[in-house]
Amino acid sequence: MNSALVQNTILSLVTTSLTFAVVFLLNHLNRTKSITNEVLRKILHIGAGTLYLAIYFYNDHGQFSKYLNIFPNLLWISILIWKSQYHSSTHPHDPVLDIMTRNQHKSELLYGPLFFNSVVVICGTIFYKTIPGSLIIGLLTWGDGLAAVIGVRYGSQRKIYGNKSLDGLLTFFIVGIVASIIYIFVLVNLQSVHLFKICVISFVTAVVETLSSSNIDNLTVPLSILVTYYVIF
Protein backbone atom coordinates (compact mmCIF):
# COMPACT_ATOMS: atom_id res chain seq x y z
CA MET A 1 0.00 0.00 0.00
CA ASN A 2 1.58 3.31 -1.06
CA SER A 3 1.98 6.31 1.22
CA ALA A 4 -0.51 8.50 -0.70
CA LEU A 5 -3.28 5.92 -0.29
CA VAL A 6 -2.53 5.56 3.43
CA GLN A 7 -2.47 9.32 3.96
CA ASN A 8 -5.70 9.93 2.03
CA THR A 9 -7.48 7.02 3.71
CA ILE A 10 -6.57 8.27 7.18
CA LEU A 11 -7.73 11.79 6.29
CA SER A 12 -11.01 10.47 4.96
CA LEU A 13 -11.68 8.43 8.11
CA VAL A 14 -10.77 11.34 10.39
CA THR A 15 -13.04 13.81 8.57
CA THR A 16 -15.85 11.24 8.52
CA SER A 17 -15.53 10.79 12.28
CA LEU A 18 -15.56 14.55 12.78
CA THR A 19 -18.81 14.92 10.82
CA PHE A 20 -20.52 12.46 13.16
CA ALA A 21 -19.00 14.16 16.21
CA VAL A 22 -20.37 17.52 15.06
CA VAL A 23 -23.83 16.05 14.47
CA PHE A 24 -23.95 14.48 17.93
CA LEU A 25 -22.69 17.69 19.56
CA LEU A 26 -25.31 19.77 17.79
CA ASN A 27 -27.97 17.22 18.71
CA HIS A 28 -27.00 17.64 22.37
CA LEU A 29 -27.30 21.43 22.05
CA ASN A 30 -30.67 20.96 20.36
CA ARG A 31 -31.97 18.67 23.09
CA THR A 32 -30.94 21.16 25.77
CA LYS A 33 -32.49 24.03 23.75
CA SER A 34 -29.19 25.90 23.87
CA ILE A 35 -29.47 27.00 20.21
CA THR A 36 -32.38 27.48 17.84
CA ASN A 37 -32.98 25.04 15.00
CA GLU A 38 -32.10 27.63 12.35
CA VAL A 39 -28.76 28.38 13.98
CA LEU A 40 -28.04 24.66 14.41
CA ARG A 41 -28.54 23.96 10.73
CA LYS A 42 -26.31 26.83 9.70
CA ILE A 43 -23.58 25.81 12.15
CA LEU A 44 -23.72 22.43 10.44
CA HIS A 45 -23.31 24.23 7.09
CA ILE A 46 -20.32 26.18 8.33
CA GLY A 47 -18.80 23.13 9.98
CA ALA A 48 -19.07 21.13 6.76
CA GLY A 49 -17.49 23.98 4.85
CA THR A 50 -14.62 24.18 7.30
CA LEU A 51 -14.00 20.42 7.10
CA TYR A 52 -13.84 20.78 3.32
CA LEU A 53 -10.55 22.60 3.81
CA ALA A 54 -9.09 19.23 4.83
CA ILE A 55 -8.67 18.42 1.13
CA TYR A 56 -5.64 20.70 1.28
CA PHE A 57 -3.85 17.83 3.04
CA TYR A 58 -4.82 15.15 0.52
CA ASN A 59 -1.92 13.77 -1.48
CA ASP A 60 -2.64 14.55 -5.13
CA HIS A 61 -0.09 11.96 -6.25
CA GLY A 62 -2.51 9.31 -5.11
CA GLN A 63 -4.40 9.61 -8.43
CA PHE A 64 -7.80 8.23 -7.49
CA SER A 65 -7.23 8.00 -3.73
CA LYS A 66 -7.46 11.80 -3.44
CA TYR A 67 -11.16 11.40 -4.18
CA LEU A 68 -11.59 9.65 -0.85
CA ASN A 69 -12.33 13.18 0.37
CA ILE A 70 -15.94 12.68 -0.75
CA PHE A 71 -16.46 9.52 1.33
CA PRO A 72 -18.07 11.39 4.28
CA ASN A 73 -20.56 13.05 1.93
CA LEU A 74 -21.39 9.84 0.09
CA LEU A 75 -21.99 8.19 3.46
CA TRP A 76 -24.27 11.03 4.54
CA ILE A 77 -26.15 10.90 1.24
CA SER A 78 -26.86 7.23 1.94
CA ILE A 79 -27.98 8.03 5.47
CA LEU A 80 -30.26 10.84 4.29
CA ILE A 81 -31.94 8.64 1.68
CA TRP A 82 -32.35 5.84 4.19
CA LYS A 83 -33.74 8.16 6.88
CA SER A 84 -36.17 9.73 4.41
CA GLN A 85 -37.62 6.31 3.62
CA TYR A 86 -37.38 4.36 6.85
CA HIS A 87 -37.48 6.84 9.73
CA SER A 88 -39.24 5.23 12.67
CA SER A 89 -42.05 7.11 14.40
CA THR A 90 -41.20 5.24 17.61
CA HIS A 91 -38.06 7.37 17.96
CA PRO A 92 -39.33 10.97 17.75
CA HIS A 93 -35.95 12.53 18.59
CA ASP A 94 -33.90 11.56 15.58
CA PRO A 95 -30.65 13.60 15.51
CA VAL A 96 -30.62 13.77 11.72
CA LEU A 97 -34.20 15.03 11.47
CA ASP A 98 -33.88 17.35 14.46
CA ILE A 99 -30.86 19.30 13.26
CA MET A 100 -31.02 18.98 9.46
CA THR A 101 -34.68 19.87 8.85
CA ARG A 102 -36.87 22.81 9.70
CA ASN A 103 -40.04 20.91 10.56
CA GLN A 104 -38.77 17.41 11.33
CA HIS A 105 -40.38 16.04 8.17
CA LYS A 106 -38.35 13.23 6.65
CA SER A 107 -39.12 14.42 3.11
CA GLU A 108 -37.07 17.57 3.84
CA LEU A 109 -33.93 15.43 3.94
CA LEU A 110 -34.19 14.97 0.17
CA TYR A 111 -33.97 18.71 -0.45
CA GLY A 112 -31.47 20.97 1.33
CA PRO A 113 -29.34 18.31 3.09
CA LEU A 114 -29.20 16.00 0.06
CA PHE A 115 -28.50 18.86 -2.36
CA PHE A 116 -25.76 20.19 -0.07
CA ASN A 117 -23.90 16.89 0.17
CA SER A 118 -24.27 16.31 -3.57
CA VAL A 119 -22.72 19.71 -4.27
CA VAL A 120 -19.79 18.96 -1.96
CA VAL A 121 -19.24 15.65 -3.79
CA ILE A 122 -19.05 17.54 -7.09
CA CYS A 123 -16.65 20.09 -5.59
CA GLY A 124 -14.50 17.28 -4.22
CA THR A 125 -14.21 15.59 -7.63
CA ILE A 126 -14.93 17.67 -10.73
CA PHE A 127 -13.87 20.92 -9.03
CA TYR A 128 -11.20 19.41 -6.78
CA LYS A 129 -8.83 22.19 -5.61
CA THR A 130 -10.09 24.63 -8.24
CA ILE A 131 -11.34 28.21 -8.12
CA PRO A 132 -15.00 27.28 -8.85
CA GLY A 133 -14.99 24.62 -6.13
CA SER A 134 -13.45 27.02 -3.63
CA LEU A 135 -15.99 29.73 -4.47
CA ILE A 136 -18.93 27.34 -4.17
CA ILE A 137 -17.95 25.97 -0.77
CA GLY A 138 -16.93 29.33 0.67
CA LEU A 139 -20.14 31.07 -0.40
CA LEU A 140 -22.50 28.15 0.24
CA THR A 141 -21.23 27.41 3.74
CA TRP A 142 -19.88 30.56 5.38
CA GLY A 143 -21.76 33.08 3.23
CA ASP A 144 -25.16 31.42 3.33
CA GLY A 145 -24.66 30.10 6.86
CA LEU A 146 -23.90 33.41 8.54
CA ALA A 147 -26.41 35.27 6.35
CA ALA A 148 -29.24 33.18 7.79
CA VAL A 149 -28.04 33.61 11.37
CA ILE A 150 -27.60 37.39 11.09
CA GLY A 151 -30.79 37.77 9.08
CA VAL A 152 -32.87 35.98 11.71
CA ARG A 153 -31.20 37.78 14.62
CA TYR A 154 -31.11 41.35 13.31
CA GLY A 155 -33.10 41.57 10.10
CA SER A 156 -36.68 41.26 11.28
CA GLN A 157 -37.43 44.92 10.50
CA ARG A 158 -35.67 45.02 7.13
CA LYS A 159 -37.32 42.31 5.05
CA ILE A 160 -36.75 42.67 1.31
CA TYR A 161 -38.15 39.43 -0.12
CA GLY A 162 -40.27 36.89 1.75
CA ASN A 163 -38.45 36.11 4.97
CA LYS A 164 -35.10 37.29 3.57
CA SER A 165 -33.63 40.50 4.96
CA LEU A 166 -31.22 43.21 3.85
CA ASP A 167 -29.00 42.26 6.79
CA GLY A 168 -28.78 38.69 5.52
CA LEU A 169 -28.01 39.80 1.96
CA LEU A 170 -25.21 42.13 3.08
CA THR A 171 -23.80 39.46 5.39
CA PHE A 172 -23.77 36.95 2.54
CA PHE A 173 -22.00 39.44 0.30
CA ILE A 174 -19.31 40.48 2.79
CA VAL A 175 -18.68 37.11 4.43
CA GLY A 176 -18.80 35.45 1.01
CA ILE A 177 -15.97 37.65 -0.23
CA VAL A 178 -13.79 36.89 2.80
CA ALA A 179 -14.53 33.15 2.69
CA SER A 180 -13.89 32.96 -1.08
CA ILE A 181 -10.50 34.64 -0.69
CA ILE A 182 -9.51 32.25 2.11
CA TYR A 183 -10.66 29.13 0.28
CA ILE A 184 -8.98 30.08 -3.00
CA PHE A 185 -5.78 31.04 -1.18
CA VAL A 186 -5.66 27.76 0.77
CA LEU A 187 -6.84 25.33 -1.92
CA VAL A 188 -5.50 26.94 -5.10
CA ASN A 189 -2.97 29.76 -4.67
CA LEU A 190 -2.74 33.45 -3.85
CA GLN A 191 -2.26 34.42 -7.50
CA SER A 192 -5.74 33.07 -8.29
CA VAL A 193 -7.42 35.57 -5.94
CA HIS A 194 -9.07 38.26 -8.10
CA LEU A 195 -10.85 40.58 -5.68
CA PHE A 196 -13.11 42.39 -8.16
CA LYS A 197 -14.34 39.17 -9.76
CA ILE A 198 -14.92 37.61 -6.34
CA CYS A 199 -16.96 40.67 -5.32
CA VAL A 200 -19.11 40.40 -8.45
CA ILE A 201 -19.73 36.67 -7.92
CA SER A 202 -20.50 37.19 -4.24
CA PHE A 203 -22.99 39.97 -4.99
CA VAL A 204 -24.79 38.04 -7.74
CA THR A 205 -24.96 34.95 -5.56
CA ALA A 206 -26.27 36.94 -2.58
CA VAL A 207 -29.12 38.26 -4.72
CA VAL A 208 -29.89 34.79 -6.09
CA GLU A 209 -29.92 33.32 -2.58
CA THR A 210 -32.28 36.07 -1.42
CA LEU A 211 -34.72 35.28 -4.23
CA SER A 212 -34.46 31.49 -3.86
CA SER A 213 -36.73 29.18 -1.91
CA SER A 214 -35.09 27.67 1.16
CA ASN A 215 -35.65 24.18 -0.26
CA ILE A 216 -33.56 24.77 -3.37
CA ASP A 217 -30.99 27.43 -2.43
CA ASN A 218 -28.34 24.72 -2.02
CA LEU A 219 -28.74 24.23 -5.78
CA THR A 220 -29.37 27.77 -6.99
CA VAL A 221 -26.36 29.20 -5.11
CA PRO A 222 -23.78 26.84 -6.70
CA LEU A 223 -25.39 27.20 -10.13
CA SER A 224 -25.31 31.01 -9.95
CA ILE A 225 -21.65 30.87 -8.89
CA LEU A 226 -20.71 28.64 -11.84
CA VAL A 227 -22.63 30.72 -14.39
CA THR A 228 -21.17 34.01 -13.13
CA TYR A 229 -17.69 32.52 -12.84
CA TYR A 230 -17.58 31.27 -16.42
CA VAL A 231 -19.00 34.55 -17.71
CA ILE A 232 -16.46 36.86 -16.05
CA PHE A 233 -13.32 34.71 -15.64
TrEMBL record:
Keyword Hydrolase: no
Coiled-coil region(s): none
GO MF term (any one): ATP-dependent diacylglycerol kinase activity
Ribonucleoprotein in keyword set: no
UniProtKB keywords: Membrane, Transmembrane, Transmembrane helix
Domain of life: Eukaryota
Transmembrane parts of this sequence: 6-27, 109-128, 134-154, 166-188
Protein name as annotated: Dolichol kinase
